[in-house]
Amino acid sequence: MTLQEFVLFLVSILTNSLGQFLLKAGAIKLGATAPQGAIAFLLGVLSTPERLLGLMGYAAGAMAYILLLTRVNLSVAGPATALAYVIAVLIGHFGFGEAIPPLRLVGLGLILTGVILVISRS
């Protein structure tokens, strides 16, 4: 993976993770809601800055991922995006005070090992 490809990969993962953080922050702000119609839901998403910015983060991540796919095999790019799971757990812990049980730490270690093996050249 070249430096340019690696930067696209990081931008994709980080903007996606930022989107997750903002969507969670918006969901906390909203609180639990009752099922509602599609239009009311859409208006709720668009009226909360965190959720709207979260969706924009996902869109930016998708654009970076598409650019990455023009340069890297899907068999490398796809599995490597599993790093987003690791970042999501860290965001949950440091951003929202969620616990990380020991077994989850083992899982994160396995994901990191897998990503390293997938993106490295043998």
Layout: helices, strands, pairs:
Elements: H1 3-30, H2 38-46, H3 49-69, H4 74-80, H5 83-96, H6 102-119
Helix pairs in contact: 1-3, 1-5, 4-6
Tally of helical segments: 6
For the sheet with most strands, the description reads: none
Order of helices and strands: HHHHHH
* Fraction of helical residues: over 70%
Low-confidence stretches: none
User: Roughly what fraction of the amino acids lie in strands?
Assistant: under 5%
Q: Would you count the extended β strands for me?
A: 0
User: Separation of termini?
Assistant: 12 Å
Arithmetic mean pLDDT: 87
What is the radius of gyration?
17 Å
Principal-axes geometry comes out as: globular
The structural class is mainly alpha
Total domains, how many? 1
How would you describe the overall organization of this protein?
There is one protein chain. This protein is mainly alpha-helical and 122 residues long. It has one domain (3-119). The protein is built from 6 helices and no strands. The mean pLDDT is 87.
Short structural summary:
With 122 residues, the chain is mainly alpha-helical. It has helices spanning 3-30, 38-46, 49-69, 74-80, 83-96, 102-119.
